[in-house]
Amino acid sequence: MDFYTLLLAVPAILIALTFHEFAHGYVAYRLGDPTAKNMGRLTLNPLAHLDPLGTIMIFLIHFGWAKPVPVDPRYLGNPKRDMMWIASAGPLMNMALALITGILIRVFIGLGLANSQAGGTATMIFQMLYFSLYINLALAFFNLLPIPPLDGSRILAGVLPSRYAPTLYLVESKGPMILFGIIMFGWVTGFHFFGFVIGPFINIFSSLFAGI
């Protein structure tokens, strides 16, 4: 990814990460947990959600992360169920953003503004919409993977019987190391396991939402 391409992708990355974390905090607040609000995380200001290392990694290896929104289960009426909904909120927000972006892309294509002859500004906006579509879909489906600390692991914990809790806690302690190992393996070898797994879903929904 060259500098110009990365520059066009940055707004989409910031919006996707910010809205993702805001959704977690907002649903937690609605379910009774004021922790995110009290810590200034119930905001759409990207600076409140950016993780310094995660941001640097976006530019170095084109993969990064935001600061997780803090949640205190003690405030929740039904912690197991409520944590599942809080975890689901982030990916669902990214799917909503992808749908909105997809509709805008269809409008651009319908108006003939998606090609290089349409003009510099129109072409640049279309490219930014294109990045937004794929970044939001990638963030949604990546986070749905059931590997701690991804949202999918919280969703899985909400649907599995309580007798599996000890096993989930054990996996949770190793999850970040496993996740980082798989990412670095892909960076070194060129075989991106996560791209292989979520790629088909991204293709299906990009076609469904935007027709591309």
Summarize the biggest pleated sheet.
Answer: none
Radius of gyration: 18 Å
Indicate the overall shape: globular
Could you give the order of the helices and strands? HHHHHHHH
User: DSSP helix count?
Assistant: 8
Q: Which percent range describes the beta-strand content?
A: under 5%
Mean pLDDT: 87
What count of domains describes the coordinates? 1
Counting DSSP E segments of at least 2 residues, the number of strands comes to 0
> What class would the helix/strand composition place it in?
mainly alpha
Please tag this protein with its features.
0% strand; 71% helix; mainly alpha; 8 helices; 212 residues; globular
Tell me what the structure shows.
- The protein is an all-alpha fold and 212 residues long.
- The chain has one domain (3-210).
- Helix content is 71%, strand content 0%.
- It contains eight helices and no strands.
- It has helices spanning 3-30, 35-38, 52-61, 79-110, 120-143, 151-159, 165-189, 193-210.
- Helix 1 (3-30) packs across helix 4, helix 4 (79-110) runs antiparallel to helix 5 (120-143) and helix 4 (79-110) packs across helix 8 (193-210).
- 33% of the residues are buried.
- The model has no long low-confidence stretch (mean pLDDT 87).
Put the structure in a nutshell:
71% of the residues lie in helices and 0% in strands.
Write the layout of secondary structure elements.
Elements lengths: L2 H28 L4 H4 L13 H10 L17 H32 L9 H24 L7 H9 L5 H25 L3 H18 L2
